[in-house]
Task: inverse folding
């Protein structure tokens, strides 16, 4: 997993609520047995027409709308537990997703893949949408150490929550399996206490 | 000692370690896997050179990506076949029990766990599938996880999780005729929205819930995730024990008696505090149907579709455009092209009996394609033994072989673009049943009634 510290990037705006994991990566693309290559089908049915040509109205197909940060409406990532949704976002190149509300399983999946879910207030989100709509070149700065997100060149700034364990994992590129494998003795002791 | 909810009792008993200002290491009793969300987890174990820690606590089946016709033949789609073969190889290499295609126990993972008695009260259960919440009907903590977490469980029989908050949903009163458990849960989600339970774990209770069969309870717990909750449980009672008693994987004899005595203590303390509480009156619930593109967009079947108010950002306008439906109008009488009866929500024997009862001696509308996909080989066998297959086929309903099928359209069972499908599944997301498909979620009764008339119908009209 890649380390995450600070990020300074333009953002891609997806101003819809309840973006579900079936939109992020439709089920027919879940047939792979590896973690790679899902980025090309990210938001497939919004991004492409049925004949495979790009839909010019979709944000990822518009020049100038690029960046490492996706900003989306509330309840992002609801629905299926498919981690393929997080893999697709990472494979496409996103490093953080900003929303005012994340579905639980998606949030865990994102964190387990070094993709930072930044939960902001509805008010902050609305302002980011408003400003970036007019100034798409503006950059968002996300500082994990300070747990702060700000719009560069403005006074718009907000702090965000992340538990210190997950923060430590992201900063160091550690994953949960390393942590759990180190707890083997405790796990075995737990099993014995039940017997 | 302070009063505890049932959720707290089971959770706390399974905590191996708590990380300061972080998640907890939660011990997992049973782990289910399937072909779609497990291959990358096994690859992870191989890359680290480690075995499955407790292979006897994991059970595998093939369900998401399997055909529902000619299951004895090789799978035609090369990618699907490779995924199913990878599951077989991984289970062989790592010593995991597999109920694959052709096995008499094969079926949708959330149907087979309960019907085999692998699912039991008081357990912690996970699976790389969000509808793992289904198993909570037996009074356990069951929730869906991502593939990295599947790998955690395979490697250590534990998963790192932050403890959710608790949410009580109490339903009291008598259900009206024509109203079944699917209507209860669609009603609840329509009130709480698709995000109303996020961050929480639900306990369903109340006199209405207590009177439901185990299969009806499973339908409710199944859709906990559709209001954003990680899972939902129901305290075990005599209905639970009676259902489990004769199942192949439950303890027998004296061990059974001891287990039941232990399970009887599994309930929330009277004065236990929940973080959130909601109360519903069963008498106010009518047959439900969804009109939009998330399961919270549901209405009573005689009600009007909500009209966008112009300033909304909730996606109502976008949803209605996708569905090609008009706000302010009724759904009743709207044209239907497909009917799908199946999925981990409604594919059990009681669902098939309800449908067979209703359509017996009748015929589906000519223009409707009606597909029934049983949840498991056991359900299929039982349906045939009871002669339901004959009744259904005479009414023009096609009884297929078990799998997830048109719930998510990973296999060939898809709804074509622009077509309307009344479906007993759990999600009406854009494209869920096929690119451009329009899904209307409803109960098996409403689905069957709509297949007969060829339009969205109020089943109560047929029951008069």
Result:
């Amino acid at each position: 997993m890649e380390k995450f510290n600070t990020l300074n990037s333009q953002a891609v705006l997806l101003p819809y609520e309840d973006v579900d994991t079936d939109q992020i990566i439709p089920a027919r693309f879940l047939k792979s047995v590896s973690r790679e290559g899902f980025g090309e089908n990210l938001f497939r049915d919004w991004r492409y027409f049925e004949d495979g040509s790009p839909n010019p109205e979709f944000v990822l197909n518009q020049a100038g709308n690029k960046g490492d940060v996706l900003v989306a409406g509330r309840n992002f990532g609801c629905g299926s537990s498919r981690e393929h949704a997080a893999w697709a976002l990472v494979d496409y190149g996103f490093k953080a997703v900003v929303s005012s509300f994340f579905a639980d399983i998606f949030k865990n999946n994102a964190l387990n893949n070094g993709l930072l879910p930044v939960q902001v207030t509805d008010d902050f989100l609305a302002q980011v949408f408003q400003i970036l709509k007019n100034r798409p070149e503006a950059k968002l700065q996300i500082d994990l150490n300070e747990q702060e997100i700000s719009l560069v060149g403005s006074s718009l700034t907000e702090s965000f929550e992340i538990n210190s364990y997950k923060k430590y994992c992201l900063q160091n590129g550690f994953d949960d399996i390393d942590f759990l494998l180190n707890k083997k003795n405790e796990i075995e002791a737990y099993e014995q206490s039940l017997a | 000692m302070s009063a505890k909810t049932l959720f707290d009792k089971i959770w706390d008993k399974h905590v191996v370690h708590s990380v300061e200002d972080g998640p907890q290491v939660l011990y997992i009793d049973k782990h289910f896997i399937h072909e779609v969300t497990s291959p990358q987890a096994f690859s992870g174990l191989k890359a680290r050179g480690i075995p499955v820690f407790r292979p006897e606590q994991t059970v595998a089946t093939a369900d998401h990506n399997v055909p529902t016709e000619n299951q004895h033949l090789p799978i035609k789609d090369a990618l699907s076949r490779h995924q199913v073969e990878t599951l077989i190889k991984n289970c062989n290499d790592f010593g995991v029990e597999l109920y694959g295609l052709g096995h008499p126990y094969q079926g949708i993972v959330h149907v087979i766990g309960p019907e085999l008695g692998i699912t039991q009260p008081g357990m912690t259960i996970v699976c790389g599938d969000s509808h793992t919440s289904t198993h909570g009907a037996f009074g356990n903590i069951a929730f869906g996880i991502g593939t990295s977490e599947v790998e955690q469980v395979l490697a250590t029989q534990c998963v790192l999780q932050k403890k959710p908050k608790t949410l009580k949903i109490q339903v009291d009163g008598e259900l009206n005729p024509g109203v079944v458990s699917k209507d209860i849960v669609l009603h609840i989600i329509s009130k709480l929205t698709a995000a109303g339970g996020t961050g929480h774990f639900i306990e369903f209770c109340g006199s209405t819930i207590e009177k439901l069969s185990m299969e009806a309870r499973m339908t409710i717990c199944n859709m906990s995730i559709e209001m954003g909750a990680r899972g939902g449980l129901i305290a075990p009672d005599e209905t639970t024990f009676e259902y489990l008693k004769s199942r192949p994987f439950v303890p027998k004899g004296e061990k059974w008696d001891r287990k039941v005595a232990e399970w009887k203590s599994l309930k929330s303390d009277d004065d236990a505090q929940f973080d959130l509480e909601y109360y519903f009156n069963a008498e106010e619930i009518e047959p439900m149907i969804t009109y939009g593109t998330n399961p919270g967009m549901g209405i009573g079947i005689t009600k009007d579709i909500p009209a966008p108010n112009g300033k909304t950002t909730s996606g109502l306008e976008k949803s209605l455009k996708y569905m090609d439906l008009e706000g302010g109008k009724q759904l009743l009488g709207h044209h239907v092209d497909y009917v799908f009866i199946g999925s981990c929500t409604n594919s059990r024997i009681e669902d098939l009996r309800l449908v067979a009862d209703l359509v017996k001696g009748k015929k589906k509308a000519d223009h409707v394609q009606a597909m029934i996909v049983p949840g498991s080989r056991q359900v299929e066998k039982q349906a045939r033994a009871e002669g339901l297959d004959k009744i259904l086929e005479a009414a023009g309903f096609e009884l297929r072989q078990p799998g997830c099928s048109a719930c998510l359209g990973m296999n060939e069972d898809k709804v074509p673009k622009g077509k309307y499908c009344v479906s007993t599944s759990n999600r009406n997301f854009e494209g869920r049943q096929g690119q451009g498909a329009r899904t209307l979620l409803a109960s098996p009764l409403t689905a069957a009634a709509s297949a007969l008339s060829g339009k969205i119908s109020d089943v109560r009209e047929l029951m008069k």
Notes: The two ends of chain B are 54 Å apart (CA to CA). The domain at 6-161 of chain B is CATH 3.30.499.10 (Aconitase; domain 3). Residues 61 and 99 of chain B are 5 Å apart (CA to CA).
